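The instructor's notes for this session suggest beginning with a concrete chain rather than abstract definitions. Hand out the sequence below and ask the class to guess, before any prediction is shown, which regions might be ordered.
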Amino acid sequence: MSNNEGEATVETAPFDGQNSVDTSPLLRTGAIEATSTVVSEETQSSLRAGITWPCLVSAAIICISPLQYGYHIAELNTPKNIIISCNKDAVYSSSLPLCLPMGDAMYSVCTSIFAIGGLLGSLSAGWMAERWGRRGALVYNNVSYVLGPLLMAFAVSPVMLAAGRFVSGFGSGASVVIAPLYLSEIAPIKYRGTLNMLNQLSIVAGILMTLVIGMLANSGPYWRISVGFGLVLACLYLLLFTFAVESPRYLWSHNMRAEARIVLRTLRHTSNVEDEVAGWPVPSASSSSDYRPPNQVVSSEAGNTEEQPLSQQEGDLLGAGAQDGAPKPGSTDCVDGLMADNTSGPKVTVLNIFRFAQYRKAWVLVLFLHFGQQLSGINTVFYYSSSVLEKMFSSHVSSILTMTIGVLNVVATAFGMLFVDRFGRRPLLFSSMTGMIISVTLLGVSLARGFDIMAAVSLYLVVASFAPGYGPVPFLLGTEFFDVLAAGAGGSWALAANWIGTFIVAVSFLPVENLIGEWVFAIFVGALLLCEVVFYIYIPETKGRPIEEIAKKLA
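After discussion, reveal the predicted structure:
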């Protein structure tokens, strides 16, 4: 790309198709200005940068993926009756069946098979994120979000509906591993929590979207619109994903340091990124890469820089950084006991992450965080919401009130975003868990005593307590506990524990409730107390700290 004299000029080599850092329009607009200036001491360090427009745009586009997860997880809740039983009075002329008659057992299979797909997707996400990059993996994963809604919208049998749910579940499981990882990797250090919580905000917004569309399409054959609407979100992502950049930390870890700096300068809107990349694990210069670094020509009114390969400039910058203690390219320095070279050193995968001593504590903590989140009983609150509200109001009014719970979920999550980088992760997590202990106890007591009004209020209190802290913080901490070499594998295990916890609670809740009644909520309170004690002892504060420093502390 050539500009007039006096303007910055950047020339890049052709894109080879494996990685997609250069294809983002953000790197071809005014945002590139920061990457095309000569680094000087007067330039603000990227460590002090805020959330720029390129960063926010990339985050918003990537968050379409967890938005789809939120939509799909609850899409069968509202239209159940019109799916399993046909309305004989409905005017219908399509070749597709008006409904899919099935028993409660089969409908439960259609609902729960989503979790099986999600588990497999989560376990595959780490490999996908390392193979295709964070952004690239979500593009490939979007195939699930296209195929799943198509199978459900055109289903002619319960089996076809279940197949669509399984495929959508796979995509959802991968999304909630890769998206928060991407958000943490592009975020400036001091706003990492705020940007990462866009993941949870997107999930709860997707759930609310499902409630609204499900209520509007809750008649006749329109359930097909409800289950097929995810296709619209999938197409939206395919239209917009090129406007998002690839994660600079991923590029750096795959020996694409030149591209990583270009992207990082765009995201931070400053040319001085050396302080930030100095702490990143440096792959060996001998590592092979199918992606060839672009060449760059820099010129300005203040002076000219002769054309030279960017890789040579990057080598000079790395040499300067090495004098301050940063590893030199081509060295065999270890990062917390793990070889920095991402190709010649031992690979961290889902199958072996627990064998590395430096990751074992972090691995156990993220399992505890996500499994414990489901043992808090949050899903049973949504299960009880309709039945509790229908005792006091008509079915129409109770459905509207149920929707207000979804609105509260979104608002409370957004509220948490305001405080996560101001007060820290620990205060937000522990205040949330304490609020849940109180509100879940009130819910169990009010249900046991028949206090309907207190039970209804307790439902709102549980959601208001969960949404700003215990909902998003486990996703955030799961991306902060592992350095870039183990981030994918650690995230896969974290969400696998979440799916397993969801399945265990879903399968066991009704049998246990039938056995001990409302005392089942005492189990949730006990799990919350145990988890809060464990987290208080072992989870460090991560606010404002580099990810490598956090990972080293947990090693």
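Then share the key points. Residues 1-22, 28-42, 285-344 have pLDDT under 50 and may be disordered. The two ends are 45 Å apart (CA to CA).
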